[in-house]
Write a structure and sequence with these properties.
CATH architecture of the largest domain: Orthogonal Bundle
CATH class of the largest domain: Mainly Alpha
Order of helices and strands: HHHHHHHH
Shape: elongated
Radius of gyration: 27 Å
Number of domains: 2
Number of helices: 8
Amino acid sequence: MDSFEINKIIAAVLLVALIVIGIGKISDLAFYVNKPEKSAYKVEIPESDANENKKVQKVIEKVDIKALLAMGDVSHGEKVFKKCAACHLINKGGENKIGPALYGIIGRKVASKEDYKYSKAMAEYNKNWTFEEMNGYLRKPQSYIKGTKMAFAGLRKDKDRASVILYLNQNSDNPLKLP
């Protein structure tokens, strides 16, 4: 096949694309539809249903942390932590990377590493990293502490979260007693 035939094929493909786009634009001009200002159908929601939906959204799921941690395994947590290792170190005296070093994090105050610049949301959180707090945060960090700069989707599986929490707790000078 010589270059002239290739040019004809490319030109034909481009012409078809332009015709399709042009027909769409011309049909929009020819068949103008005047949209009404008000909707023809109005669906009314009773007040009680709207209030119940708001209440359901505000309910925070209580987790039996003892049962959750029973599902975990430290060696599995070490494997799952490899997802976190791109941004965090876990070894004692480890430096901060993109995220702060996590040695001894369970039981420590949130955003308490002096040599790391936390987001405003994390700095204002003012709680300690308990097993429950860490579970909620690891599930979906962006929705647990709104405004955190941690760009991680979270750990959906309960076993993965429990294992990582056990692994984080083990990597400390004073691991917390399990519930």
